[in-house]
Amino acid sequence: MWVTSYANTVVTRYRLDGKQAGTFEVGLGPLNMAFDGANMWVANSKDLTVTELRAIDGKVLGTFNTGNAEGPYGIAFDGQNLWIGGGAYIVEMRPRDGKLLQQENLGGGSLGSVGFDGANTWVAGYAANMAYKL
Questions:
Q1: Would residue 17 be called left, alpha or beta, if left means φ above 0 and alpha means ψ between -120 and 50 degrees?
Q2: By the 8 A CB rule, do 40 and 26 touch?
Q3: CATH number listed for the domain at residues 29-133
Q4: Residue-level pLDDT at 128
Q5: N or C: which end of the chain has fewer CB within 10 A?
């Protein structure tokens, strides 16, 4: 299990028995995380980046700018790419190299959590009290 610490610049990994298995430096204000099948991705809300950590040992593999004016807050993996939400924007990022594939203003205020249901990406618009299906 991985836990973010918004007040710090770290995430902590725990073993199944509940014992701490490591603390790892990421960006400022880590909020949410996504798993891509091999690596953990951390949305660093205060410095507009995401950090990629190797899940097996927490080694930082890269930190990538989201190009977003606010956030990022939510993050999800759709089996191919990452979807990162923050402010009024949703960003699609290629995990292989952190390349931004698209950025779209969804309007309606601040975006929060992002999820993938196996077919669609969903974004919560907490300031607008609505959800977006991409």
A1: alpha
A2: no
A3: 2.120.10.30
A4: 60
A5: N
